[in-house]
Model the fold of this input.
Amino acid sequence: MKRREFTPEEEARIQRRIRERGMSFEAFLPEGMADWLRTKLAAGVFESAREAAFVAFQDLIELDRHPKVRQQLLTATLEASINDPHPGFSAEELRASLDAKREALAAPDPHGAEIHGMKHADFQIGTEFWTATGRWRATDIGTRTVIAIKLDQTDMRNYNGPPYSVLESVFDEYDLDGCKPAAAP
Done:
C-alpha cells in the first residue's frame, strides 16, 4: 500500500503537533555514564544519544509496569555489589580520590582547550557557538538571554524559520559562560 506524501506545510504541522505533545530536554551524563554511552554508540548499539535516552525511558516505563522485575533487578544489583571480589573503598579513600579528581579538573587544560565563555554582547541572530552538548545557532536575542536551536538535525529544512520545527532553547547569563564561539565557516 502506497503511503500518502505530505506537503512541506503538512510535515511542519505534524512535527509541531508532535512536539507540543511530547517533551524535549538536555541531560548531562557523568563521565562513567558518558563513556558507557560512547562505547555503545561506537559499537552501533544506538545511532544517537537521543535514541539511547528514548530506549532508557522505555525501559523505565516497563520497570514501572512490572514492580516484581524492578525488585529482582535491585536485588541482583545489590548481590553483585556485595559479592564483588574487588575490595571496597573506605570513606577516607573515596574522599581522597574525589578530591584528587576535583584538583585535576580545576587545573588549566594543558592543551589550551579551555572554554572561556561568551558574553551577551558576543551574540547576534545567526551566531553559531559550541557548548558541552554540541553546536548551536542563535535565533533571538533578549535583554538577558539568547534563544538558540541545536544544530544536530539531518534534515536542513528543520532550520528554516522562524518559526522553527525544532526546539528553541533559552540560554541565560549563567549559561553563556559555558559557550564558545564556533569557528567561521
